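I have been asked to look over a protein record a colleague put together. This is what I was given:
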Amino acid sequence: MAETGKTEPSHGREASSQGAARSHRGVLIAIVALLVVAAIIVAGIEPRRKARAALVQETHELAIPTVAVVHPKLGAPRTEIVLPGDIQAFIDSPIYARTNGYLKQWYVDIGAHVKAGQLLATIETPELDQQLDQARADLNTAEANYRLAQITADRYQDLLKTDSVSKQDVDNAVGDFQAKKAMVASAQYNVKRLEELQSFEKIYAPFDGVITARNTDVGHLINSGAGVPATELFHIAAIKKLRVYVNVPQQYSQSARPGMSADLTLQEFPGHRFHGVLVRTARAIDLASRTLLIEVDVDNPTGELLPGAYAEVHLKIPPGSPYLIVPVSALIFRSAGLQVGIVRNGDRAELVPITVNRDLGNEVEVNSGLAANDSVIINPPDSLITGEAVRPVAATEQETGTGSGEGQ
């Protein structure tokens, strides 16, 4: 019985230890379960967090526009500028009638070369002829009255010596004689005036030239313009030497001096240059265009060049500093004026105003506003502003639209 009582406590301790072990395993299982659940939760949250962070980063990156940039090209120093010019006749004059009548005959047509004093047309003036006949008759009457008054005055002066007439009668006779003398002079001047008008029945060329227009024909009523608008009968131009008028931009105005060489080229004469000389300038800048008007004279002995034609004038100017050349796709036209966008500090846009020298087609020459090492934005977005973050990339030839050619 004593042995039996000693074994009971050992069984209790064994059961107690087994319960503690089970409890410990339960705790471990619970902890592991919690860890597993936490791991599952973390595994689900972390990809979302990364995805959200990636989305934010991508959105931020997409908000920064990517712009194509190019460095300005350096053009050759300018020694010649090409400007448009208007060719005009050295002398250009309309021919009007100086008397009224009807056109009897014309002797030259358009394109005819005429000499100074050559007869161009004849006008019939029947009314003027009758006025001249009447004036001559009035002159004859005035001369007859003058002779009679002279005889009367001489007789009265002789009679006065014998006191046969009064001094008043002599004064009256002498006064009448002087009046008749003045009437003769007036009639003579009237006849001379009408004879000069009659001489205008024949229209002559005022200088050597070519007839560029004929605006009348046989039988047309000719009016000298007294009281009504006159009609131009002919137009004549002297073309042995021509004037070419050119508007020179202000930046070249100091280089444009009389005596400098200026050649002309025309599309109808490919590869051929006509030599000219700058003879005078307006000596004033036009306020509207900011240009200087110059005149270039060109000899035209064969008549190849035609008045009114368009020509390109090549002006030889002293060499200057080279220009920077950028594609036209870089230009920004806004109310602030002509601008281009450049990239500063590698990631910030800046709009800078520029001055263009001339348009080369796909490119333009820039006078001021740019430096050779500037990164110029090609095809800038309409919303581009100064200070905006940008991502610059090198522009391709297709983007610039200029190819690989050098600046002119």
Observations:
- Residues 1-7, 404-408 have pLDDT under 50 and may be disordered.
- The helical segments are 2-63, 126-161, 167-199, 397-400.
- The chain has four helices and 22 strands.
- The longest strand covers residues 80-95.
